[in-house]
Design brief:
By secondary structure, this protein is mainly alpha-helical. Helices cover 52% and strands 4% of the residues. The structure holds s-citryldethia Coenzyme A.
Length: 418
């Protein structure tokens, strides 16, 4: 078996012929030692706390880029020229509307529906209204290019998210405006209404750009791997993204950002003291995990969490809007960083630990935090799906270690004894 070399000192053991040569398969629960793809999109060094998109450090993109520019970088592989960015931005505007027949779907969704359920349903419904986009082989037809489908997904996920919030509030939908850029458009669709125009705060627009940039891609995480496994069957991009949204919803993955705020609320309301919640998290007899803490890859502080924590310290304190939940989060972090249980297991705050506090500052409701994660991750899902399809990757079909009955036979009902 050959050792294959990647960038940044990455090496892998090529076992693609292992079974043919030895009759053996590997056993690797959670795929923590297994890669199924070669990828050039994002790079994480979990020991050093490094994250780069197409080689560019996340800190530089957070400081200097916008979410739309970063989305282009991830999907098309380079920072766009002025003209490329203008064409991409125009596509995002041109394809920001939902088919009007889809609007009626919202009228039949219960007001209390979780926005992630609505989002997955609406994204998959795009394949109903734009089914001519793909032929049976999942290849793009001439009447719509991949670029238009990509723009439609990145743009309408905002529209769907905002409309689901308006449905929850019982307010009229606010449509996207061609004069507003990506993040400002989203905030306007969320918070403007016919009797109270929304005053766009450029500081909040900048904060939202940073948060979406930080969530845009992260190697082969659970939801991205789901998008690629589903996409490897050659189903269309909408269906593949819908599967990724469902995977992201889980509390061990993107759903953690909502759970963190709920956990901080418990503590704030005196329902459970910090000491007790830490003991619960450490107890082997409890299934409770400290939300927003720990990571499969990062064994040091998640660089994204560090950037968001810095935002919290600057914005929330400067605005004298010291969120009481921030104080609790900082106390929890301090305890974690000095508790042997967490130190020995190299468990640190991850991207979900502080992100909800910034979403709260922007006025976004807690049950929409994972939707915000999905909006940010959309370019990464698309980029990884596109890379897989450009590589003409084989259909994903993992093996198993069978531990069931050797051989059994059918027993007629009258002879069964249990
Ligand atoms: C994201 O993969 C990605 O890149 C994901 C993501 C992305 O950008 O796509 O970064 C986004 O999903 C971040 C993670 C959000 N999830 C949470 O915050 C949920 C809480 N975290 C844990 O459930 C856990 O840390 C995971 C799911 C994130 C990672 O799980 P692993 O890698 O399977 O770790 P593990 O279960 O093997 O834990 C190792 C040890 C165990 O203890 P021991 O059996 O060795 O005694 O650490 C303990 C675990 O019990 N542990 C925790 C813990 N996380 C791990 N104990 C208490 N609280 C926790 N949060």
């Amino acid at each position: 078996m050959e050792i294959i070399k990647g960038s940044n000192g990455n090496y892998g053991l090529d076992i693609s012929n292992l079974r043919a040569q030895t009759g053996l398969i590997t056993y690797d629960p959670g795929y923590q030692n297994t890669s199924a793809y070669k990828s050039a999109i994002s790079f994480v060094d979990g020991q050093q706390g490094i994250l780069r998109y197409r080689g560019i450090p996340i800190e530089e993109l957070a400081n200097h880029s916008t979410f739309v520019e970063t989305a282009y970088l991830l999907i098309y592989g380079h920072l766009p020229t002025k003209n490329e960015l203008s064409v991409f931005s125009n596509y995002l505007n041109e394809y920001s509307l939902l088919h009007e027949d889809m609007i009626h779907f919202f009228h039949n969704i219960p007001q209390q529906a979780h926005p992630m359920a609505t989002l997955s349903m609406m994204i998959n419904s795009l394949s109903i209204f734009y089914q001519d986009v793909f032929d049976l082989e999942g290849q793009f037809t001439q009447n719509e290019s991949l670029d238009i489908t990509i723009a439609r997904l990145i743009s309408t996920i905002r529209t769907i998210a905002a409309f689901s919030y308006k449905k929850f509030k019982g307010e009229p939908f606010v449509y996207p405006r061609p004069d507003l850029r990506y993040c400002a458009n989203f905030l306007n669709m969320m918070f403007a209404n016919p009797v109270k125009p929304y005053e766009i705060d450029e500081e909040y627009v900048k904060l939202l750009n940073v948060l979406l940039i930080l969530h845009a891609d992260h190697e082969q995480n659970c939801s991205t791997s789901t998008v690629k496994l589903v996409g490897s069957s050659r189903v269309n991009l909408y269906a593949s993204i819908c599967a990724g949204i469902c995977a992201l919803w889980g509390p061990l993955h993107g759903g953690a950002n909502q759970k963190v705020i709920e956990m901080l609320h418990w503590i704030h309301q005196g329902k459970i003291p910090v000491t007790e919640i830490l003991e619960k998290a450490k107890s082997k007899s409890e299934s409770f995990r400290l939300m927003g803490v720990g990571h499969r890859v990062y064994k040091t502080y998640d660089p994204r969490a560090a950037i968001i924590r810095n935002i919290c310290m600057k914005k929330l304190i400067k605005n004298k809007k010291l969120d009481p939940l921030l104080e609790i989060a900082l106390e929890l972090e301090e305890r974690i960083l000095h508790d042997d249980y967490f130190v020995e297991r190299r468990l640190y705050p991850n991207v979900d630990f502080y992100s909800g506090l910034v979403y709260r500052l922007l006025g976004i409701p807690t049950n929409m935090f994972t939707v915000m994660f999905a909006i940010g991750r959309m370019p990464g899902w698309i980029a990884q799906w596109k890379e897989m399809r450009d590589d003409n990757s084989r259909i994903g079909r993992p093996r198993q270690l069978y531990i069931g009955a050797e051989e059994a036979h059918y027993i007629p009902m009258e002879e069964r004894r249990i």
